[in-house]
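User: I've been trying to design a sequence by hand for this structure and keep getting stuck. Would you show me what you'd pick, starting by listing the structure so we're on the same page?

Assistant: Good idea, let's start from the same input. This is the structure you sent:
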């Protein structure tokens, strides 16, 4: 579904991504794990069109999106939940969710309402708080809102950047359960995480990034047993 081939991204003189290649099949959850500064967010931003690679290609459902603008990429069915839960603080929960449908046409009003209902069913807490300003939600609620908003674009594939960041263990569990459910309902997921243990337990396959390169890949269950991964990312258990 998503094929990233040989991308190189620079921030001025910094070579942030070095010949990165990987793929995500339809229906999969694939995780990208790695330490701070490994290049995970840079990879996400290159896929979603916020950064560009001078080499290689990125195709989504057979079509190159390497040079496409971010809103066109969303419209094709590839939505991103950015790092740090960027909700619109001064808008209500419901307004935030409706913003998520911005790439869809006005005559889809009925479908958009049905999707809003679907998001509220998945996150009852958001329904209770639909008139509340998003900036006053707790961290976990903002993360749910951020995911809910991305779902409002009816994505075929979701890019999630560190969904567990800053959440308590119970909320992390809740967010990962939700990721699993969204996937079971037919959305393909690329998950970026520092929480390697959770990411590997929820995903089918994974790639390990280090200083701008992918150094390891495989089935998540195999990586959970891999000595290097254990030592570097799972606290050496
Ligand atoms: N706007 C920028 N200007 C210059 N360098 C940047 C910029 N954004 C990121 N970098 C550098 O690129 C490298 C990769 O950063 P990136 O944000 O992709 O890492 P990451 O894997 O997402 O890390 P984290 O887990 O901390 O979010 C880092 O060395 C970072 O300092
Ligand atoms: Mg990051």
């Amino acid at each position: 579904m998503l094929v990233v081939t040989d991308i190189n991204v620079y921030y001025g003189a910094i070579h942030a991504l070095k010949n990165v290649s990987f793929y995500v099949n339809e229906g999969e959850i694939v995780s990208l794990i790695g330490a701070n500064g490994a290049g995970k967010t840079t990879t996400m931003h290159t896929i979603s069109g916020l950064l560009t690679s001078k080499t290689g290609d990125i195709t989504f459902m057979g079509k190159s999106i390497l040079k496409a603008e971010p809103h066109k990429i969303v419209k094709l069915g590839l939505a991103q939940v950015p790092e740090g839960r960027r909700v619109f603080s001064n808008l209500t929960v419901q307004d935030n969710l409706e913003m998520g449908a911005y790439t869809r046409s006005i005559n889809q009003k009925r479908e958009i309402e049905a999707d809003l209902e679907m998001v509220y069913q998945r996150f009852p807490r958001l329904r209770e708080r639909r008139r509340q300003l998003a900036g006053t939600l707790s961290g976990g609620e903002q993360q749910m809102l951020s995911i809910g908003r991305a779902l409002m674009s009816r994505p075929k594939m979701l890019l999630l950047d560190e969904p567990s960041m800053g959440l308590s263990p119970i909320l992390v569990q809740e967010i990962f359960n939700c990721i699993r459910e969204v996937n079971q309902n037919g959305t393909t997921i690329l998950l970026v995480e520092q929480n390697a243990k959770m990411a590997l337990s929820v995903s089918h396959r994974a790639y390990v990034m280090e200083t701008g390169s992918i150094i390891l890949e495989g089935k998540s269950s195999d990586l959970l047993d891999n000595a290097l991964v254990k030592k570097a990312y799972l606290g050496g258990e």
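That's my pick for every position. To get oriented when you compare it with your attempt: The beta strands are 2-11, 14-24, 29-34, 57-60, 63-64, 78-81, 157-161, 188-193, 205-210, 213-219. The two ends are 34 Å apart (CA to CA).
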